Amino acid sequence: MARNLVFMLALTSLYIGLAAADWNILNKKVTNGAASGLKSYCESWRINVELNNIKGFELVPQECVDFIKHYMKSSQYTADSERAIEEARLYRSSCCSLEGDGKDAWIFDVDDTLLSTIPYFKKHGFGGEKLNATLLEAWMKQGKAPALDHTLKLFHEIKDKGVKIFLISSKSETLRSATVDNLINVGYHGWCSLILRGLEDDLMKVQQYKSEARQRLIKEGYRIWGITGDQWSSVEGLPAAKRTFKLPNSMYYLS
User: Fold this and answer.
1) CA distance 20 to 16
2) Following DSSP, what letter does each residue of the chain receive, concatenated?
3) For 140-192, how does the pLDDT look when each residue is reduced to its tens digit (9 = 90+)?
4) Domain ranges, ordered by start, for the chain
5) Greatest CA span in the chain, whole angstroms?
């Protein structure tokens, strides 16, 4: 009996060890050395995009497109996003001594922060095709982007505390009506201002444009407690917020 128990424990340990060795964030089994090398390379590429070590890429490496597709559609992407939002929620609950003068502010990006573009990228290669602004804007004009539920909850929690919400997006001003309708239709309402790019902003890099938008808010007396966005260009640069919260996005990079 004791010998059988030892044998069963050994088999269990072996199974757990093999399962741990084969597990990866995309829930794919590694069957050979080449697959293992590609898996490691693509996961490393994705992580280094999130760390902002890989900047300004125009395309996801072709060999990694399937990995990025599986990640962006996976429960792991949802869990990663929800963890970032939970950290923002914990920070908000303890950080901010609100003045009650209407000058406490929080900034949100729009695309892939409040609204998801994954339905568009499902048909356009999950970053494996060069971004076609004309096609993307045509899709945005339909106003059918779904909400990211975890951010929707944070949005309303912050708003209900009396913090003014500003939406700063690199979208064109021509998309204002469609964007407003889309946001309202999926549950967002009560923001203070939606700032979009006009013709005078076209030659600016995204980071400069968003930094200047924040500077205008600071000059108006607002205290920016937090920024939530999926792009580094949304959270970098001066003036800075007290804290920034970056959501995952491996499909494209806006600088």
Assistant:
1) 6
2) -HHHHHHHHHHHHHHHHHHHHH--TT-----SHHHHHHHHHHHHHHHHHHTTSS-S-SS--GGGHHHHHHHHTSHHHHHHHHHHHHHHHHHHHHH----SSS-EEEEE--BTTTB--HHHHHTTGGGTS---HHHHHHHHTTT-PPB-HHHHHHHHHHHHTT-EEEEEEEEEGGGHHHHHHHHHHTT----SEEEEE-GGGTTS-HHHHHHHHHHHHHHTT-EEEEEEESSHHHH-SSSPPSEEEEPP--S----
3) 999 999 999 999 999 999 999 999 999 999 999 999 999 999 999 999 999 99
4) 54-246
5) 81
58-95 burial, b for 16+ CB within 10 Å, e for fewer? Answer: eebeeebbbbbbbbbeeebbeebbbebbeebbeebeee
Question: Is residue 87 within 8 Å of 245, Cβ to Cβ?
Answer: yes
C-alpha span between 67 and 71 (Å, rounded): 6
Whether the CB-CB separation of 233 and 211 falls below 8 Å is answered with: no
Which position has the token pair 């050994």?
A: 10
Task: Determine whether 173 is exposed, middle or buried from the number of CB atoms within 10 Å of its CB (0-12, 13-18, 19+).
Answer: middle
Query: How many Cβ atoms from other residues are within 10 Å of residue 225's Cβ?
Result: 20
Q: What gap in Å lies between CA 61 and CA 68, rounded to an integer?
A: 10
* Main-chain phi, psi angles of 154, to 5 degrees: -65, -40
Residue 46: the pLDDT is: 96
Pairwise CA distance, residues 158 & 152, whole Å: 10
Where does the pLDDT of residue 13 fall: very low under 50, low under 70, confident under 90, or very high at 90 and above?
Answer: very low
**CATH fold for domain 54-246:** Rossmann fold (3.40.50)
Torsion angles phi and psi, residue 246, rounded to 5: -95, 125
